[in-house]
From TrEMBL:
Organism: Enterococcus termitis
UniProt cross-references to Pfam families, sorted A to Z: CHAP, Glucosaminidase
Keywords: Hydrolase, Signal
Protein name: Peptidase C51 domain-containing protein
Molecular-function annotations in GO: amidase activity
Signal peptide: 1-26
Amino acid sequence: MKRKLLSFQMIFALLSVNLIPVASYADELNQSESSAVEDSSTTETTDSSSTEDSSTTTTDSSTSGTETSTTESSDTTTTPSSEAPQPPVENQAPQPVQPEVPAEPQEEAVVEDVPVVTDNGLTVQPDQEISVVKNEPTETFIRRIGEKARAVGQKNDLYASVMIAQAILETGAGGSQLSQQPYYNLFGIKGEYKGEQVVFSTQEDDGSGNMYTIDAAFKKYPSYKESFEDYAKLMKEGIDSNSEIYSGTWKTNAVSYQEATKSLTGVYATDTSYDKKLNAFIEEYNLTEYDKAQPSKTAAGIIVADTHADSDFKDYSGETFSGAEAYAEGNCTQYVYNRIVQLGGYVETTMGNGMDWGATGKANGYEVSNKPKAGTAVSFQPTVAGADGTYGHVAFVEHVYEDGSILISEMNVAGLGMVSFRVIDQNTANTLAYVTPK
């Protein structure tokens, strides 16, 4: 019995010895895990502080008008390390704490108001001051339409200067597709003309300065002449609901072009500065010259225009026809070739220089004489009536007056590519060669 009891005591003692380290190791595990949690919490707190700094940066960025980046904040939040803290290294020198350097404040982007400059030379300043700078494309456009506007203005009691200014503004000095061949719509008038129309996308103003785009049908004209005439009809007859809506543009009601342009503002156009823009063009280009009854002439009697009231034929279209490439661009020979073909005639592409057309015409079976005749090509020998001293000159006869003088249209007398008119006296006219087209 004693021997058994002693055995049980020994067994118990042995078990007690083995259980002590097991319990101790479990406690160490618990203590280690608890320590790791505390360290992790400390790290997260530090990162939270970092996030606050990021928020401060974001606020500064927002103040500067820069778009806030949510990605940057997210990266900062997920940066903290999950590693357990390392035991300190003995005899390690303490690391100096780096002071935080505040981020430099970002300057707000300053957007300066800049003037709006259009292709036709019109400049609108931020304070709505309006000015115009002359340019060659606009001057060329004015020469093309000026005489047409004069003729229509004189006939319909309207200011040609206002019509020209409107055409410049509405078409970008003839640069819009609607104003060019084959549409010739100078004023953006909608509807149809003798059954002809064309559809374009256009921007409209809702009356509050807000623009929106629609597709609209615009009138299509045979030439600029019909465009001016139809515009004049609108000014004189008005619209169905108000026949005198544009009566303020009539010379009998407006003592100056300024009054006429004022009457168009808010009626013809919703632009509150419409009259100021028109006035700027009229003043810069001296368009009141076209309000006079008779065209202006140079000292040499040259009228720079592509139409004349005395012409027996429809206006020059400016179109370049097949075969014209045989002649020098912008010169007298190419112009006369295009003018004859435009009016349904035929002439060779090998007529030569201006002085050669008479001789070449005879050699090719054309009727050639020294008797003036409207609708013919007229050939000048060198130096005659200002013709080039080497190549001579050729022009187109638009009209023969009762006194035997002739009205001619020509190109490259007033400048390369420019059409002009002048009258040749009877004595000179009788010395020239006239070639009748086939």
